Amino acid sequence: MRRSVAIFFLAQILIVSYLVHSCWTLITLLVVDGSNDAISRAELPGPNSGLSVHGKKHIIPKILHQTYANESIPAHWIEPQQSCIDLHPEWEYHLWTDKKAREFIAAEYPWFLETFDGYRFPIQRADAIRYFVLAHYGGVYIDLDDGCHRPLDPLLSYPAWVRRTLPTGISNDAMGAIPHHPFFLRVIDALPNYDRSWLLPYITVMASTGPLFLSVIWRHYNSDGPLEEERVRVLFPDEYSNHPWSFFTHHLGNSWHRGDVRLILWMGSHWIVLTIVGFVVGFAVIYGIWTLYGRIVHAKNTGRGLSLKRRLPFWSSQQEYELVERHEV
Ligand SMILES: *[C@@H]1O[C@H](CO)[C@@H](O)[C@H](O)[C@H]1NC(C)=O
């Protein structure tokens, strides 16, 4: 008996270790908040007092990238789009339509074209193209539903920056980089490997090209200890929006959200219940395996097969354990 218990727990420990190992990056994302790389409000100039971080040159090129299916941008996004164009009169402006995006990938990154064309959801192409243009040209990418609240020029002083999201990870809706920044090179290299399908479209998009994918690569990149000049700096929520000193204003968007997003949002707001249910299910599974395992050991020792009654774990378990005990010793 004692040996079978040991084997049982060893198997459980192996399974749990494997799961923890596979999800390690995700688990660390819950505790790593990126504050070491924060772009602090103290180092930024006030909203009306200059365009450069003190003592630092602008290194990111003055290019604004945005994406949409075609040139006919929906009316509700014209205002945020125009606010960014108006605040950056000297900047180049690129709108990456589906057609331009595909031409660009075909011409410059033909190794990625098959993955690019193969994406099931258009938003995956919209995600991917922003990483490629940042890696290629450098500049600043902004989602169409983000308006600009003050000139972004101070952010041109960092080699690369992304935006922190709550409760965990980073987003891909506003980010900037110099051309060929090692983080974005790593991001584009990783895209084909992450092109996998998960059960729900929302999770598939998040994990293959979206913010979850970017957060995972960000974790890997940071845990390799990048050089000082290759760090990816992080814009925190207060510098992102809602304050007089923030850079952006957020407009309603999420044009690609589907039915399953409601499920995810529901799960987000019921996470305590779901965690408890998860533990109950987890223990039930362990208990089930344990009972089944006990039965098999018992059946082997007695030379009898599993009777119907014994296959139903719940009503005679006490007697069952005693039986197992007696035969094993
Ligand atoms: C542009 O794309 C949107 C979204 O896919 C679509 O609804 C619209 O019809 C397109 N407009 C033109 C002119 O093709």
Short overview:
The protein has 329 residues and is α/β, with parallel strands linked by helices.
Please report the number of helical segments.
Answer: 14
Which ranges are low-confidence, i.e. pLDDT below 50, for 5 or more consecutive residues? 308-329
Q: Whole-number average pLDDT?
A: 85
Secondary structure class reads alpha/beta
The topology string of helices and strands comes to HHEHEHHHEEEEHHHEHEHHHH
CATH classification, class level of the largest domain:
Alpha Beta
Task: Using brief descriptors, characterize the structure shown.
Glycosyltransferase family 32 protein, Glycosyltransferase_domain, 14 helices, 329 residues, binds 2-acetamido-2-deoxy-beta-D-glucopyranose, alpha/beta, 6-stranded mixed β-sheet, Spore Coat Polysaccharide Biosynthesis Protein SpsA, Chain A, transmembrane helix, two-stranded antiparallel sheet, transmembrane
